[in-house]
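Design a sequence for this backbone.
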């Protein structure tokens, strides 16, 4: 889309900084010097994703301030993808970059009904920002969306009418969902660790990255296909367990950073997670 608009996309990755012991999404870091080097007088906008997919990282206030300071210095607009804003686990807090000093006027914040209400088939969301940026966004939207799903819009409106007065209370769905997912997150991390993978415990979202590099699975080193794609295919075919190869999220120059990882999803029924755990335990028995 950037190229269609006549722009040049410039990529900067989060880099894993820890591979032993308990690894969390906070261990995936953004290099301040590397980020600063990407800004120039030609930089028009930056896309920020927090809580982050696929790592589950929630950018700290200090990290967001660092990004915000560069944007103000170079007069850059922020497109902030915050679709997992309510999927935040205990001990962590999501900060909107638009709430930082002098950032409202240069930020468009994107939300998702599908992620907020766990109906990801409902392709409906919203953008929040200052009048001038939203006007430009409306112009683009008007010419790329043919029809709006009115019944779904009505359903989402009802959802907000019901849940907004409950915000901050245990019975609010926005609070219930992460509470329901925490034990699932713990369960998945445990059985992935048992087979020899090193899971990244996410601070937010419902995905879990896992480093599989310690497993004795042979890859075709001569193949042009990334190793994570090869491993996912092997895992699906031989163990009947599906995952996502995260290098699909990376630009060509950074795909190597994800070659030793795969991404699992734990927003599943307990029955499905138990089946996955059995597959892992049976696999572990063959490795003994």
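Sequence:
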């Amino acid at each position: 889309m950037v190229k269609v608009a006549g722009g040049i996309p410039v990529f900067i990755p989060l880099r894993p900084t820890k591979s032993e012991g308990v690894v969390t999404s906070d261990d995936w870091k953004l290099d301040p010097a590397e980020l600063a080097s990407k800004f120039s007088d030609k930089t028009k906008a930056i896309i920020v994703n927090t809580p982050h997919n696929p790592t589950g990282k929630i950018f700290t206030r200090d990290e967001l301030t660092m990004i915000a300071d560069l944007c103000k210095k170079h007069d850059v607009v922020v497109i902030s993808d915050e679709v997992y804003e309510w999927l935040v686990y205990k001990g962590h807090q999501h900060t909107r970059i638009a709430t930082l000093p002098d950032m409202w006027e240069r930020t468009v914040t994107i939300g998702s009904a599908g992620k907020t209400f766990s109906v990801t088939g409902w392709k409906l969301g919203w953008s929040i920002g200052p009048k001038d940026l939203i006007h430009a966004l409306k112009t683009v939207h008007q010419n790329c969306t043919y029809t709006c799903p009115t019944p779904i819009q009505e359903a989402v409106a009802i959802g907000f009418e019901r849940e907004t007065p409950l915000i901050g209370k245990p019975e609010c769905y926005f609070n219930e969902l992460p509470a329901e997912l925490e034990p699932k997150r713990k369960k998945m991390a445990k059985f992935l660790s048992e087979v020899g993978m090193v899971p990244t415990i996410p601070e937010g979202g419902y995905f879990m990255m896992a480093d599989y590099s310690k497993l004795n699975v042979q890859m075709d080193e001569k193949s042009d296909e990334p190793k994570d794609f090869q491993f996912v295919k092997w895992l699906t075919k031989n163990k009947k367990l599906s995952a996502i190869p995260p290098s699909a999220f990376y630009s060509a120059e950074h795909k190597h950073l994800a070659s030793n990882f795969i991404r699992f999803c734990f927003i599943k029924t307990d029955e499905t997670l138990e089946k996955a755990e059995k597959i892992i335990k049976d696999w572990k028995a063959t490795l003994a």
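The chain is about 35% helix and 15% strand.
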